[in-house]
Amino acid sequence: MPALDGLRILDLTRILAGPTCTQLLGDLGADVIKIERPDHGDDTRAWGPPFVQDDNGADTSESAYYLCANRNKRSVAIDLASAEGANLVRRLAARSDVLIENFKVGTLGRYGLGYDDLKEDLPGLVYCSITGFGQTGPNAHRAGYDLLAQGYGGMMSLTGEPDGEPMKVGVGIADIVCGMYASTAILAALRHRDRTGNGQHIDLALVDTQMAWLVNEGTNYLTSGEAPRRRGNDHPNIVPYGVFETADGHVIVAVGNDAQYERFCEFLGAPELASDERYRTNAGRLAHRDELVAELSRRVRQLSSADVLGGLEARGVPGGPIHDLEQALASDQARARGMTIDMPHPLAGSGSVKVIANPIRMSETPVAYRRSPPVCGADTNEVIAELLGDDD
Length: 392
What we know:
By secondary structure, the protein is of the alpha/beta class. The chain has helices at about 15-25, 65, 85-95, 115-120, 145-150, 155-160, 175-195, 205-210, 215-225, 260-265, 270-275, 280-285, 290-300, 305-315, 325-330, 330-335, 380-390, and strands at about 10, 30-35, 50-55, 60-65, 75, 100, 125-130, 200-205, 240-245, 250-255, 320, 340-345, 350-355. It folds into two domains: about 10-215 and about 335-390, 3-Layer(aba) Sandwich (Rossmann fold), CATH 3.40.50.10540; about 240-325, formyl-coa transferase, domain 3, CATH 3.30.1540.10. It is built from 17 helices and 13 strands. It has a six-stranded parallel beta sheet with strand order 5-2-1-6-7-8, with helices on both faces. It has a three-stranded antiparallel beta sheet with strand order 9-10-11, with helices on one face. Helix 1 (about 15-25) packs across helix 7 and helix 7 crosses helix 8.
């Protein structure tokens, strides 16, 4: 039996942060009911191409972006702006353990669906709100998108080439991490609810969670008072640790301690770089980063990628290739770990769609892929009849 079997999530989210959270909970066994606007649905359904293709090779209404975060859910189409729709959602909330939403601050309150509107009648409900800037503060009214969070929260100031423009991470990482924080907070709130019978309001902001995962760079600044600068692929605290050009491509070298550095120099036929007092310790290597990396780079460029990777592995020095997505998802490691899966889909001409798997491996309550990402409103009648009665 899945770990969260018997848990019901009323999902009023769209785009990526909320759907990432609810897909994770659904993968772990929760019954996730996704509320969508009739005839429109989650905004990301239209965020293509690419789209799922039908029997004739034509695009359908389902984008690949939507598929990435919406499996293991049932879709119910309800117009929240109507009195009837808002009442249906309230009744569904009464039969749910968790309500999660990512509307702008105050929006659901206009329909009588805010936390303050529900908490007295539903004291055990865990209510999670995801916004750009949180429920309080001078920017609480502003809309939130991943790019804005990465910019406001400082991440873009750390990402990119030293002399280039500030750069966002290649995927919506602020959304994704916020969704993961949300799932953890929801499970903690449910633990409290199970002990006391009391639900609570969870207030999560994209910008807050992005600042939280500044981790070492954030603490470096708080400790030193010096704002970190962009270093491209170099590490702020470890040298050598980054991307090196080879004779036929690029590789990663990730030296984590002085012993590994000594073995790296041995591989390059440069033991003098390990015994040199300037470079013998990591602190010294940081102080002389530019000159050392330039010399190491000169030597690595004379070797093939295969020779570098083989030599590092033989000596226990961390290193690795830089895959494109085709290479990564088709790698022997990805195949062994089952990192892509096929799921049936009613609109796909092939009969199925391929998605990235959940990475969690649990020995007793494994992840289950029960439902493919639903077509908008596909489960409306089923859910209403099941939870509210056939008369509705």
